[in-house]
Amino acid sequence: MGEVKGFLKYKREEYTKLPAEDRLKNWDEFTSLPAEDSLRKQGSRCMDCGVPFCQWGCPIGNIIPSWNDLVSKGLWKEALERLHKTNNFPEFTGRVCPAPCENSCTLSINNPAVSIKNIELAIIERAYEEGRICAEPPKSRTGMKIAVVGSGPAGLACADQLNKKGHKVTVLEKNEVVGGLLTLGIPNFKLDKAVVERRVKRMEQEGVVFRTGVEVGVALSLDELRQQNDAVVLCGGAEQPRDLQVPGREMKGIYFAMTYLAQRTRRLMDIKTDIKEDIDAKGKRVVVLGGGDTGSDCVGSANRQGALWVKQFELMPRPPQERTANNPWPHWALIQRTSTSHEEGCERDYSISTKGFTGQDGLLTGLQAVRLDWSQKAPEGRPLMKEVAGSEFNVECDLVFLALGFLGPVQKGLIASSGVALDARGNVRADRNKMTSIPGVFTAGDMTRGQSLVVWAIHEGRAAAEGVHAYLNAKSMEKSTAKKGGL
Q: How much is the mean pLDDT over the chain?
């Protein structure tokens, strides 16, 4: 521990953020790192618990107390080495992860948690600034070839791990740019695309090959990939959005959230988009349906475009401000959270069900909704949704973004043509080693797990890499044994 009583001596300190009115003027990131002295004090707030629940809460098992202690002592190089043992891309998670580790921090029982996420980002960004993130290609190659389908966080993590083990890895991406959700799904103000490009460039220098504009299942079949490689890993994500089947859904002005967010990013990157009309919120009344991170990203994007106002409606009740008795530490706190996008201007409302849309000449002009009562419960304890009689209301609006989550991977194309087995939820089924029903074909990320966090995708990619590596080793041993037997 940097200081035995550091958690008593120092208060939690957040990153400095530009005022909302300033950050709305552009799409740039708007936080700045604290000075080194401040970061070292924040690191010393860690109590180095006997049982580090922060590691339990972290999907990739980051060795958090260790690098907190190293930062508190000014040992930044050693902190980076410890961080990279478990996390391939701390510059991503340090920006967009909701920090389940901090929810499980022992200090958070009755005090603000250690600023784990901020320290993580500081470690990696300092390393980049000081030139300590250099290409480290493997010293030897195994001769084994692997194709990774999809270049989101799961695909990148899997490719990175397999390349480090000496295998020859090619990543196939259907879009024109690498990064998947990281590039086209998360707005620039949360994750600047130069950050993704920086890491991809390093992976290329280490030997990973990226092929963009190749949609497996359309331009190239899975069978062809299997013939060309010793193993294939499917990391295509969960891109099938949940729709809202209500009257008026067909009107112009209603879009899936990811359609809107991807178009905004494509415009900023000056790359083509398949959507003919420009989805522009300038001067418009915007309603976002869905209260998660994707919905929040729509709020921030619409405000940057100059929306007249933005409202965000959520089906479920308003979460409590503090943990309830049935949501104890160290579990994820089911409380109301205010994102930076909400700070920039948004009216939030809860327990609302959309019943339909109104319009004129095919153009959206309003939304019809009803309020819900969640106070009753089913015998097993599940809350029951009941419409409140007489609570119907209308909202005049020009744009509606559907941020209602995802139903799993898109079935058309790769999955339909490959015949790979699915689970009951429509996700690609995998065994404990992340292998699918097709021998030598593995899967990772949202495609098999369902919609989740970037940090879980990294965990999935690393797990799949271990499964692939073990499979290839066994395959190599079989060949070697067969050859000896033949002699």
A: 95
